[in-house]
Amino acid sequence: MIIRKKPIVLDAWRVIDVSIDDEVPVWVFNAMANRKLNEVPNGGWNVNTLEGKMHANIGDVIVRGVDGELYLVRSTIFKRTYDVIGDEP
């Protein structure tokens, strides 16, 4: 069987050092509030994914799936496999 994955539009956020004054998308703020996304003191973020806890480095991308689940995509993989089609509304 040969298949092609259906094209879907997802929300994504490039990992940065966040301060209290920075604006982040609402879904990222909610993930922080629900402890699905936690800043690490030495840099980066811990992301609770379906596969378990993963560490996101600055520049990596966190993607919100169709059911609200979070995925970590390394920056090099993101550049090769995704096209940015817009900004957060």
UniProtKB/TrEMBL annotation:
This is Uncharacterized protein. It comes from Candidatus Levilactobacillus faecigallinarum. The lineage of its organism: Bacteria, Bacillati, Bacillota, Bacilli, Lactobacillales.
